[in-house]
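Hi there. Long-time user, first ticket. I'm pasting a complex I've been working with (about 968 residues overall). I'd like to know whether the download I got is complete or cut off, because the file seemed smaller than I expected. Thanks.
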Amino acid sequence: MKQLIKLRVNGIDEELYAEPWWTLSHVLREELNFIGTKQGCEGGHCGACTVLIDGKAVMSCIYLAMKARGKDIMTIEGLEGENGALHPLQEAFIEHFAVQCGYCTPGMIMTAKAMLGENPNPTEEEVRAGLSGNLCRCTGYTKIVEAILSSAEKKGN
Amino acid sequence: MPELSVVGKSVVRLDARTKVLGKEEYCADIKLPGMLHAKVLGSPHPHAKILSVDTSAAEKVSGVRCVVTEKDAPKKLTGTGGIKDMPILARGVVRHMGEPVAAVAATTLEAAEEALELIKVEYKELPAIFDAEEAAGTNPPVIIHPDFSNYRVTLHPDRLSPERPNVFTHIKVYKGDVDKGFKESDLIVENRFVAPSIQHCALEPHAAVVCPEPDGSVTVFTGKQGLSRVKEDVAAAFGIEPYRVRVRQQYVGGSFGGKNGTYEFIPTLLALKTGRPVKWVMTREEVFVLGGPREGMVLTVKDGFNKDGTIVARKMEVLVDGGAYAEASPGITQNCSSATICMYRIPHLKWDGYAVYTNTPKRRGMRGYGVNEVAFAIESNMEIAAEKLGIDPVELRRKNLLREGEPMLNGEITHSIGAAECLDRVCAAIKLNEKGASEGPWRKGKGVALGNKYSTARAAYCGARIQVTENERIIVYHGADAVGQGVNTVIAQMAAEEFGISADRVDVVFSDTAITPFFGGGSTSSRTTYNLGNAVRRACDDAKRQIFQRAAWNLEAPPELLGTGNMEVYVRGHPERKIRVKDLFSPYQDRPRQIPAGGAGEGEEIMEIIGKATYRAESIPDDPKTGQLDPELAKQGKRFMAFYTYVAKAVEVAVNIETGEVKVLRCCGTVDLGKAINPKTCEQQLEGGMAMGIGSALYEVTLMEKGRVLNPNFADYRAPLAAQMPFNENMKSIFVESAPHKDGPFGAKGFSEGAVTGTEPAIANAIYNAVGVRIKELPITPEKVMRALRETYPSLPKRGKAAKLLIQEDL
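Hi, the file is complete. Here it is re-exported in full:
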């Protein structure tokens, strides 16, 4: 039985009817049209669905939408600044050629944002460990790690 | 060659900004009004007769608009590789677990899932066969396709194997007399290698949206590798005129060969039946099973050497497990033989490749299309032989490499072979002869391997269109597949170079069969840079001809004397006599009546400049009985494959002698790619390829038991994560440009598959170098390493501190 719920996404309150079993990724993608959050598996293994909830990286495909009520949800769409300005992490991913097919990219960037939020100056080992919930098949991770490290150096988080 | 200003530069990728914003639409992101969601019911049995299917309860579920079974599906059997053996929905029998039996379209995914559970199918299980070697016999206990002789098969009869009822392809490459060769050999090295099925693991699951149009035609939105074929396949299967099938490429979240089959049939069927758009997105589990795992191979290599290390004879038998339907396996089985044909000089060769049916999911070729498995076998064998011969393994390879101008093992004349430089540079980069010091239980070792990847010429012709607009921009139309590899950026650079502009003045239109030209074979076989690059350059020439013809009047100079750069046309040698390209479009120029370029009516002004061209790499066929080319034609330089790209990989590993774990510390790859059009995007591909090679060497395998895939998810199937890859400073990508291809655009070949090749044998060789054990079956898991360590070092105790002490003595 659908319930009326309110979710705060990228700073804006969204109201919608949702089934209690709906995942946050389903609601974001299908109901609220935030297609930047991708779905690569159904089990929280690949990280393509990563969003931030109160600043922490969460796999939205195994997180119930209901549970997100009252919390601050940020998706990749929330990183874009005014007039299309890119977040420093987004700039870094472009500059360092960290994007190929693009499917893992939103999840990688959101995870990186959360990671740098907690640990602004990670070592390479820490970055790689921090990406253990994000699978990429195109890049081999080299340039993704480079982009995150360079973004940390610039302290643009 | 004049100095290049855009080609050869690391231009930022055109699609990067859209992707970091998350704005690109993949198929699963498409929402159309009235769209229905599809679910597919797969067989729970590996081999069974379908006795009855009852969809009545499913049809009654609220939201369900349509339930289909084989009686609703087109009757023609399908198949992508020359054997049409596969029904769109199972007909009377299922041959692998997960084979589609029925499909549902409903207003919500939940309703579709509910309906799926209510479809009642009665099966009678049949004996099944899972082992490729058992299935390949002359008298197997189960024949999977008893009706094979009635299928439409376009393979030459000499490439079939009727005496083995489950073998659907037999490839022969015969040269000289191997028995004589072995008799003359001083050393014979024979080994059996196994490279099991692995998975493509593209992050985006397979998806398609099919939309019936008001005029009776059909639009297929798909994330594809092989757009043009979808149109032909769908048109042929459903009896629709090809011009009424429009296939529109979306952004693709990776493919690696996995999205090369035609899975659009089922959503098309549902769309035509319901009259509404239908979206089908595979679950990850479905991708692992129905999307199609890679083929698995069993390879035996028997090499005969002289004591000075020259190879005298090679006998190879390769058995390809193709799963329940032929699909791409005939091509894989044929083409993988090229890995042994194009690299080393071998006077006597007997290669027999067999593709066999088993009651396992049908297979889908994966990045490398069989050459990775072959490279694993032959490059491991070379290393084993080197030790027995007492010859340095790098020397052994160098001395046997073919040289420019020499005939390969099928007679084709070797051209553009940078393998020796690849080998030298990769050995230098990894400092091959400096062994790392042990650290606790970790023993270090280094290994190297060569590899190669062909690109087919057959059926790989393509068109390109270049539009020069009055906004001083170039628009490129092409039908290749941008699957994440950076096609559009590289193509934009080539077009920009031709016009002397920067790459950001070039737009590339998304491939769409209604708008963009044909691209034969799809962006597979590492062919896009080469074939499309050539087509684009010729189309640019055509556009420039038209520009010069028009500007000739404005500049009062013959067209042959004109040049262009920066969207200006000028007289060569008199650059002050120039005109902006956009000013050529002005209709008010009082031009004399003339026949404008393009043959439009006399006196008509043309408002657009469109250059077009087709490129086809010429080739000659091989003899199906022997795999040899016609010697006369071959001597004239006629080719079988468009090109061959050579690669070398070197790795440093650390092996834990207490647990068997293998870590890759350093990984270097060199690629003889002719010309790096965009060095950074080349690095992207090579790094990703080496990661894939590390995965298949150490972690990846499709575990199957009695036809069931046991690990159809990312938790149990271990594609490498960032923590399993070497640190950035230990990943090296080196591009060799000393052997450009005479027919490649700017000398370039393609290498996105070669990016993987050679990584597996390099790792196996490094492990041997570290701890003296030779693993011949992938993936090289800790269990295999420990078992091999215990066999090789019998005094190794089973556990405890004593183990560490004893091992330090022996190793």
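A couple of notes from our side: Chain A has a mean pLDDT of 95. Chain A touches chain B through 53 residues (CB under 8 Å).
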